[in-house]
Amino acid sequence: MRIVFASGNRGKYREMKAQLEPIGVELLFGGDMEGPHEIEETGETYADNALIKARAWAEATGLPALADDSGLEAEALGGLPGVHSARIVEGSDADRTRWLLGELADKEDMRGRFACAIAVVMPGGREPLVVTRYCPGVIIREPRGESGFGYDPVFIPDGFDKTFAELGDETKNKISHRALAVKGIAEMLRAVIE
Ligand code: IMP
User: Fold this and answer.
1) Model pLDDT, residue 124
2) What ranges make up the beta strands (E) of the chain?
3) Which of 42, 88, 96, 181 is a Cys-bridge partner for 118, taking CB atoms 3.0 to 4.6 Å apart?
């Protein structure tokens, strides 16, 4: 089964391809295609946004399309930045991390979780596949570590004493919200392929 990855993010593509290949899915890189690259993420949930992107790519390419959406939720902030994680303030990842730590400065509860939804839309009216998975942990007040991206330097997943940015990609890619969501969608796809 050939599926288009509805994003130009090569890091995410590699991670997903590695997990989907063993079940017989050939994942095509959206970054190499014309596809609808500028899609407004207007959904209220990660799943809505993943579906919006996957639908647009399935329509544009005529192929099944897979899209993801993710974010970090701080409990003390009622789940913010959440689906707005990539755009909660303008500027760089470091600016958004500073915003988060500023909002949490007078809060005691530092619990949080990363969330990731993955959707697969198949042309021809078949019911879309959608999963949402979480990686719970705590947000720390001083960034630590160099690897990864986004809020990685301020997030320690449960069961560890290092941030995602200190743990590095190999460990992160086994336990992250995205890794769990890819596993979930792979199980659903296996059932469709068989
Ligand atoms: P999107 O899913 O590409 O729209 O990204 C959502 C935003 O959530 C990213 O820009 C990051 O700010 C944040 N985010 C999602 N997943 C991660 C992660 O694994 N580490 C750090 N930040 C993340």
Assistant:
1) 84
2) 2-5, 26-29, 65-74, 111-121, 129-139, 155-157
3) 181
Distance 194 CA to ligand 1 centre (A): 32
Q: Give the tokens for residue 100.
A: 């988060």
152 close to 139: Cβ distance less than 8 angstroms: no
Architecture of domain 2-193: Alpha-Beta Complex (3.90)
From the number of C-beta atoms within 10 Å of its C-beta (0-12, 13-18, 19+), residue 193 rates as: exposed
Identified catalytic residue from 32, 68, 69, 161: 69
Checking if the pLDDT of 64 tops 90, the result is yes
141: left (phi over 0), alpha (psi -120 to 50) or beta: alpha
Dist CA 153 CA 155 (whole Å): 6
> Would you list the domain boundaries of the chain?
2-193
Question: What distance separates the 2 farthest-apart alpha carbons in the chain?
Answer: 53
pLDDT at 148: 87
Q: Which two tokens stand for residue 148?
A: 């990864």
Q: Whose CA is nearest to atom 10 of ligand 1?
A: 86
